[in-house]
Amino acid sequence: MTATMTVSMKDKVVIVTGAKGGIGLATAQLFAKEGASVALVDINEPKQEAQDLIDAGYQAISIQCDVSNERSVESMVEKTVATFGKLDYAYNNAGIQNAATDTVDLKEDVYDDVMNVNTKGIWLCMKHELLQLRKQGTEGAIVNCSSMGGLIGVPERSVYHASKHGVLGLTKSTALEYASKGIRINAVCPGIIETPMVENMLATESDAMDELMKQVPIGRLAKPEEVASVVLWLCSSSASYVIGQAISVDGGYTVQ
């Protein structure tokens, strides 16, 4: 069973990074279906994904963006506002995973790549989204994608988990800065989701993934739409008193 919810996003504008597939695409699709104008953003421009929404009668654009590059992020926000006139919400979802590696065997360039996309990328996106919201003088909401890896540790995942712990630090501290300004910032912490990243891990690290799945109380992978529904709720007025939280969507994994 896939979780669904209905929240009106009519006349709202949202940025979704990492929107080429997986959770990002599911989130962009859900916001569009609820009436929002959506900027689908990815390092590999999601032209077809945006066009599919347009063909279905929704408002969408595609933008190529490297979230680890400040000028690219700044341009992404500028293009969104130039097209739709404003910004209301953002889901900062773009992230990468590295192969399972003992910490002492981890290469410096791999460490830099993961931290640049997963942590620096969140900071840069928040920075320029908040600059736009501040310029507008309007309320809004930002949701950052951490991971259950932002809450726990797993052997051979040190840099990925460090990057996702960092996302929660950025989320909580920045949420305190902007709560009084009517801008709510929260994070989601997805567990093991049916995404291209997880499909690759299942194919290349099947034994490790089998062990992980044994520890998921609900006994299955999550659908991307199940995370998208939580992002939608966090941006909605139904979550108006939720600030600086890390919401786990992991089938009970981190409760144990």
Automatic annotation (TrEMBL):
The keyword Oxidoreductase applies. InterPro entries: NAD(P)-bd_dom_sf, SDR_fam. Keywords: Oxidoreductase. GO terms for biological process: bile acid metabolic process. One of its GO terms (molecular function) is oxidoreductase activity. Transmembrane segments: none annotated. It holds the Pfam family adh_short_C2. NCBIfam families: PRK07231.1. Belongs to the short-chain dehydrogenases/reductases (SDR) family. This is NAD(P)-dependent dehydrogenase (Short-subunit alcohol dehydrogenase family). It comes from Paenibacillus amylolyticus.
